[in-house]
Amino acid sequence: MFKAAVVTVSDRSFRGERPDSGGPLVAKLLKDAGYEIAETVIVPDEQPQIETALRGLCDEVGVALVVTTGGTGFSPRDVTPEATISVCQRLTPGIPEAMRYASMQVTPRGMLSRAQAGIRNGTLIVNLPGSPKAARENLEAVLPTLAHGLEMLTGGPADCAALPL
């Protein structure tokens, strides 16, 4: 079982003007997949605050996986991808590529996602869209494979030649 954290990036949810529906959904999907949810946080669409949250979860809380929801679109305040790139030492482009591919099977607007994924020390960070529907679709596209990546990242026994169940 891996420890995970969920970060909701939303000005309105941070200010209490709108309930956070994406974060709890992502946390439930992760929990249902066997992850232990160590922490959930809500931050505004401010790059320094997103970066601080990501660094804290990776470096202090020490989770294996951080999943963000929100801030991946074209709005001028959508800066989650930039925050993620800023804190990561290595990017993992296949994850957002797979999510965009899966999303485009539902809507051509899936190509507009600017989501990123990367590694900070021993933690994988994955960006999801803010829409609960899109967050679910994107996470479900990659969730079956994330555990294998986390096994490799944490030095566990990961058989790369074995086929997924």
Give the topology, please.
Blueprint: E1 3-9, H1 11-14, H2 22-32, E2 36-43, H3 47-61, E3 65-69, H4 80-87, E4 90-91, H5 94-104, E5 117-120, E6 123-128, H6 132-153
Parallel strand pairs: 1-2, 1-3, 3-6
Antiparallel strand pairs: 4-5, 5-6
Descriptive overview:
The model has no long low-confidence stretch (mean pLDDT 95). α2 packs across α6 (132-153) and α5 runs antiparallel to α6. This protein has 165 residues and is α/β, with parallel strands linked by helices. It starts with a strand and ends in a 12-residue tail after the last helix. The radius of gyration is 15 Å and the shape is globular. The chain is built from 6 helices and 6 strands; from the N terminus they run βααβαβαβαββα. The protein has helices at 11-14, 22-32, 47-61, 80-87, 94-104, 132-153; strands at residues 3-9, 36-43, 65-69, 90-91, 117-120, 123-128. β5 and β6 form a beta hairpin. Strands 2-1-3-6-5-4 form a 6-stranded mixed beta sheet, sandwiched between helices. It has one domain (3-151): MoaB/Mog-like domain (Molybdenum Cofactor Biosythetic Enzyme, Chain A), CATH 3.40.980.
